[in-house]
Write a structure and sequence with these properties.
Pfam families: Abhydrolase_1
Keywords: Hydrolase, Membrane, Transmembrane, Transmembrane helix
Distance between the termini: 32 Å
Structural class: alpha/beta
Order of helices and strands: EEEHEHEHEHHHHH
Number of helices: 8
CATH architecture: 3-Layer(aba) Sandwich
CATH topology: Rossmann fold
Number of strands: 6
CATH class: Alpha Beta
Shape: globular
GO molecular function: hydrolase activity
CATH superfamily: Alpha/Beta hydrolase fold, catalytic domain
Protein name: AB hydrolase-1 domain-containing protein
InterPro entries: AB_hydrolase_1, AB_hydrolase_fold, Epox_hydrolase-like
Oligomer: single chain
Helix content: 25-40%
Length: about 200
């Protein structure tokens, strides 16, 4: 799309796919769930045209980036480690960071763990939520937003069938979504690697 370049880089023990365009200060885009670098395609082109180098990786477990089999490989420590290794490969001491949804959570932790590597942060949709191992996240979200909140919906048994549905091309669960044009892309990307374990950071 409009000169966006793609390549694989070796970071933190995995191969990571990145999409990039432009020259100048780096803007690192961090996608949410269930998204890919593709969510940022318009922003990549727009910022590159304004003198920035826009970089959007597929996080571990997404798209063409490796998906380690163990669920313990998807902590915020691992994912932030991937991004720091990516910044090192890009030769950047500091970058502008833009996060959305689950990517915003990762962006907050990137700032918390390595503030020296972040020039500025712009987050969409998610405010900072400190980690609280004693807290019950889903119960707290259900109390605040009700049973129809998307994360609460992800807890239902039907969601466990998604890998089966994706592998058979059954998009019934998602027919009501406004972005139905992009679903075939997700079917292709998520179905070959098995379960969606890598999709949500823990």
């Amino acid at each position: 799309m409009e000169g966006i370049e793609h390549r694989m880089v070796s970071v933190n023990g995995i191969n990571m796919h990145i999409a990039e365009k432009g020259e100048g200060p780096v803007v690192l885009f961090i996608h949410g769930f269930p998204e890919l670098w593709y969510s940022w395609r318009h922003q990549i082109v727009a910022l590159a045209a304004r003198g920035y180098r826009a970089v959007a990786p597929d996080l571990r477990g997404y798209g063409d980036t490796d998906a380690p089999p163990s669920i313990t490989s998807y902590s915020v420590f691992h994912i932030v480690g991937d991004l720091i290794a990516l910044l090192n490969i890009l030769g950047q001491d500091q970058v502008f960071v833009v996060g959305h949804d689950w990517g915003a959570i990762i962006a907050w932790y990137l700032c918390l763990f390595r503030p020296d590597r972040v020039k500025a942060l712009v987050n969409l949709s998610v405010s900072f939520m400190p980690r609280n191992p004693a807290g019950k996240t889903v119960q707290r979200l259900r109390a605040a937003f009700g049973d129809n909140y998307y994360i609460c919906r992800f807890q239902v048994l039907l969601f466990l069938l998604l890998p089966f549905q994706f592998s058979n091309g059954d998009l019934f669960y998602y027919r009501c979504l406004p972005l139905s044009f992009i679903l075939p892309l997700f079917v292709v990307i998520f179905s070959p690697s098995g379960p969606l374990t890598g999709g949500i950071p823990i």
